[in-house]
Amino acid sequence: MIDKHILIVGSGSVGKRHAANLHKLGCSISCVDPREDRIIEAAEQTGIQLRGGFKSLEDAFEKFSFDGAVIASPPVYHVDQSIQCLKSNIPVLLEKPVSANLEEAEFLEKEVIKSNVPLLLGYTWRWWPSLLRIKEMLENAAVGQLRHVTYVMSAHLADWHPWERYQDFFMSNQEQGGGALLDESHWIDQMVWMLGSIPLEVIGKVEKISDLQISSDDNVDILATYKNNVRVSLHLDLFGRPHEKSIKFVGEEGTLIWKVDEILIGKSMEDEWERETFACDRNDMFISVAREFLDIVNGDVSPSCTIHDGVQVLRIIEAVRQSSSTGVTVKLRPM
Q1: Rounded CA gap, 172 and 294, in Å?
Q2: 128-280+315-331: same fold as 5-125+285-306?
Q3: Which positions ≥6 away from 255 have C-beta within 8 Å?
Q4: What is the distance between the alpha carbons of residues 310 and 104, in angstroms, rounded to a whole number?
Q5: Cis bond before residue 199 (omega within 30° of 0)
Q6: With CB atoms counted within 10 Å of each terminal CB, which end of the chain scores lower, N or C?
Q7: Where are the alpha helices (DSSP H) in 155-243?
Q8: What are the beta bridge partners of residue 94?
Q9: What is the model's pLDDT at position 170?
């Protein structure tokens, strides 16, 4: 692969990960971060000889041209930084969520369409092998007509970045776009991706209920209604131990359970399950995202996770927020 110069915008945890993976795939790397110490830290921790380190996108664009950019900053900066890259004709890999609110996400979607520059959205669990397998099984009606799906993501925030105080992590800050609903919208995206559309209606509660010292939400419960009498419940929290990520699909002909590296399927009244296991490293899905992004940069493929997908997730998030504040069920129109 011809050397590509990729700009990493935001050199925190996920920015470092993208930098290391893209460098491993043969790219040269520059970083943008308002904190010089974070740029130095990124170079030291990844072992990459950066081509450049900059405090702003403007400084970076004055010095170099870039083949692609990864936006890995807090969500409140996503839209402005993405637009700056699009206007410079630079393909973008945008970390989820698209933005902190629907209005900005819809504005960015219009800018992507207008610019005709590709943007890949990083809902990385779409590239996780066992979830790809689950999607295939559902498409083949492995448990018949679905009736109920349960998503659970429970993980204590203090365990996420043990090298720093969780109070200093953007996830703790509502103004920066932190919180369970936005950051763990992976699972809202998974719901839409798995079931093929947004729900007909949602009712939800978004709260801060734990003793965590944060200004963002730490507990989310959603009930979504789909056509064909399919119900989905989704729970997200930032205080659970042990950590849990699981999905349970209950159909007319059996039950399918996903547990990160294992899939179980049961079709009898007894507690008997067929198991399929997977040997994956968490970084594997990020490598897969990086490979697709470089294929997009080369003009070989179009993004598989698009800005429109991200806008659909934000539509659901806004509906859940509305429901939480009013206590009523909110209907969603297909788009």
Answers
A1: 32
A2: no
A3: 143, 248, 249, 265, 266, 267
A4: 11
A5: no
A6: C
A7: 180-183, 186-195
A8: 71, 121
A9: 87
In one-letter notation, the amino acid at residue 89 is N
Q: Which fold has domain 5-125+285-306?
A: Rossmann fold (3.40.50)
Contacts of residue 196, Cβ cutoff 8 Å, sequence gap at least 6: none
Strands 119-122 and 92-95, bridge-based pairing:
parallel
Contact 75, 171 (CB under 8 A): no
258 in helix, strand or coil? strand
Q: Tell me how far apart the 2 most distant CA atoms of the chain are, in Å.
A: 66
Kindly report, residue by residue over 110-169, the tens digit of the pLDDT.
999 999 999 999 999 999 999 999 999 999 999 999 999 999 999 999 999 898 899 998
Token pair for residue 117? 């520059």
Distance between CA atoms of residues 75 and 173, nearest Å? 11
DSSP 207: E
Residue 234: its pLDDT value, please? 98
The arithmetic mean of pLDDT across residues 186-208, rounded, is 97
222 close to 181: Cβ distance less than 8 angstroms: no
All structural domains of the chain with their residue ranges: 5-125+285-306, 128-280+315-331
- Which alpha helices (DSSP H) does the chain contain, by range? 13-24, 36-46, 57-63, 78-87, 102-115, 129-139, 180-183, 186-195, 283-297, 307-326
- Span 156-194, pLDDT tens digits: 999 998 988 999 988 899 988 899 999 999 999 999 999
pLDDT at 2: 62
d(CA 238, CA 273): 30
The tokens for 299 are: 């003009």
